[in-house]
Amino acid sequence: xxxxxxxKALLKPFQLLGIAGALALFTGFFVILSLRNFDxxxxxxxxxxxxxxxVLAMLVLSYKPNPDVPVYLDRFETxxxxxxxxxxxxxDAALDDKNAVREEPHCDEA
Length: 110
Hints:
Elements: H1 3-35, H2 38-61, H3 83-96
């Protein structure tokens, strides 16, 4: 993974907060122009910022990467190289495989 990709991955939370801030500023600007009430504009902007932040956070949490694609921006290489990623992808693929044989644990009854 290149330094540029790591930088993009590190800036992702700030991009999401930027989107929420931009929507809050737009709402505040719209309220100031329509109602000419600065206090109400601050209240509406704060509410919009919080709601958009929570909605974007929920969307990010619901994201599940495709295990078939080897590289994602939000996956960093480890000190050992790419082996940990390969093992994680194999484990995810095994969990999703409906045809995989799963052995039941043996319990010897006394």
